Amino acid sequence: MISQTSEYALRAVVCLAQSSKKPHTTAEIARLTKVPEHYLSKVLLMLAKHEVVYSKKGLHGGYMLAYLPENLPLLNVINAVDPIKHIKSCPLKLKTHGTNLCRLHKRLNDSIDLIEELFKTSTVGTILSDPTKSIPLCESNGK
Amino acid sequence: MISQTSEYALRAVVCLAQSSKKPHTTAEIARLTKVPEHYLSKVLLMLAKHEVVYSKKGLHGGYMLAYLPENLPLLNVINAVDPIKHIKSCPLKLKTHGTNLCRLHKRLNDSIDLIEELFKTSTVGTILSDPTKSIPLCESNGK
DNA sequence: AGATAAAAAGATCTGGACATCTATTTTATT
DNA sequence: AATAAAATAGATGTCCAGATCTTTTTATCT
Question: What CATH code is assigned to B4-84+123-129?
Answer without folding.
Answer: 1.10.10.10
